[in-house]
Amino acid sequence: MFPVLFKLGPIMIYTYGFFVFLGVVLGYFLSLKEAKRNNIDLEVFKTIIFWTIVFGFLGARLFYIITEFRLFILNPFKTLFSRSGFVFYGGVLSGLLVLYILTKKHKINFLKFSDILSIAIPAGHAIGRIGCFSYGCCYGKPTTSFIGVIFPPTSPVIYTGQRVIPTQLIESFFLFLIFLIIKFIFKKKKFDGQPFFVYLILYSIIRFFIEFLRGDPRGEFLYLSTSQWISTVIFFISAFFYFYNLKKLKKQI
Length: 253
Known about the structure:
It is a single chain. About 65% of the residues lie in helices and about 5% in strands. It is mostly helical.
């Protein structure tokens, strides 16, 4: 755990915030590069990306408040302005909603735009998870394995003095793999939306199983976490549209 990256006089630069910011910047420039290749108006692209990111973060915070509503009632100020406290799926769903509205407004192919973001999101997310590790949020369950990590008492980890599974780094590793897979598929894609649906399918699978390793408080329903239920829904919807478009393409050949 390394919560403070460095200090500039009275100003502290937190490692978590730095890596989240770095992930957003990386994702932005990766998507900008692909937007140029796909002849998308860059001014329109920048506007859409800006509002997608803004509402993505707002949605991520809102979903956290919903899933941890008891904490919000007890301490609303801390919940609203905590350095952590974001639900990734909340950001994805709210961001995609805004993206859909704005692409329709500017008459841009939503799936083509989403394909570009499917390269940027896993890369930026992988960097952001390293920030989670530095802060100590999104931690795993106690373990006796050699991969276990002991976080200091000042971290959010409730298992003081115990080794826990570094789920943040595990997820970061798989996100980098997804990024490489999507990059490969993007170059050889057969239809608009293919990289996007593959990203959603792969991430929903990985997230579903990583949730079993998570040790931080999770919203639960019928023995599965909120994120596992969302992963399940996203998996089946994405798989349906993937194979529907693939079948549609084969009929046209």
